[in-house]
Specification:
Blueprint: H1 5-8, E1 15-17, E2 27-30, H2 31-59, H3 64-82, H4 87-101, H5 106-121, E3 126-127, H6 129-147, H7 157-167, H8 174-186, H9 211-227
Antiparallel strand pairs: 1-2, 2-3
Helix pairs in contact: 2-3, 2-4, 2-9, 3-4, 4-5, 5-6, 6-7, 7-8, 7-9, 8-9
Length: 228
């Protein structure tokens, strides 16, 4: 499924431990962490764009890879230009940029995911992984509401819902979320699509991995990599 191995070697510098201010061993995520995540995601999407488009050509409009490639490049540019100072502001700005830049369904869906997650984080300068997990769960719920889909419909939710479930209620394991998302994407192969463009194919959608679930798994995988 592709991993942003080069990004893993970059110095993180934004995932810090607090001694007396936070529970022992709790990592705190700041705006720089989320900028690194989205930058790494842009690199990963750029590298995997051809594969995403190939998957989409079988059951969609053959533009998923190129659309996300353009959208995440725009996200990287706007984050560098405006330099938001809180995690919530980073994700909210990225979500707005995806909605305004990416065509088709993926722009509104990915944009909603990030924007709703950012709004749930509020204006705090730092958040715990557990707090981020709760916010991401809200973002995934917003995607489900917007698309009218649920797990098992052969959509991006088949990767995102297992990912947020793996994060847990109080502690976040990004590696576990990545593994769950990848398994969820692979599990879409035998499914019949019930939402989106692929649903028009009926039984002919069976046997193909969903491109939205695949790109969602890539997003969660880069999250795990920048946090390691």
């Amino acid at each position: 499924m592709g991993r942003a191995g080069a990004d893993r070697r970059a110095p993180l510098g934004s995932l810090t431990r607090h001694g007396t201010d936070s529970p022992q061993g709790v990592h705190v995520l700041d705006a720089d962490f989320f900028r690194r995540w989205l930058t790494a995601a842009a690199v990963c999407v750029d590298r995997e764009a051809g594969r995403l488009t190939e998957l989409d050509s079988a059951i969609g409009d053959a533009d998923h890879g190129s659309n996300l490639q353009r959208g995440f490049a725009a996200v990287t540019a706007v984050l560098e230009k405006e330099a938001p100072q809180t995690p919530g502001a980073v994700l909210t700005l990225a979500g707005r940029q995806l909605i305004s830049t990416v065509g088709g369904a993926s722009g509104p869906l990915y944009g909603t995911l990030l924007r709703r997650t950012g709004k749930a984080l509020g204006e705090d300068a730092e958040v715990t992984p557990g707090r981020f997990a709760e916010a991401l769960r809200a973002g995934v719920a917003a995607v489900a509401q917007l698309g009218g889909a649920k797990a098992g419909d052969k959509t991006m939710l088949d990767a995102l819902e297992p990912a947020v479930a793996a994060l847990g209620d109080t502690t976040a394991s990004f590696a576990a979320a990545s593994e769950a998302a990848e398994r969820g994407a692979l599990a879409t192969v035998p499914m019949q699509a019930r939402k989106g463009r692929a649903s028009y194919l009926g039984e002919r959608s069976i046997g193909h991995q969903d491109p939205g679930a695949t790109s969602s798994a890539l997003l969660i995988t880069t999250l795990a990599e920048v946090s390691s």
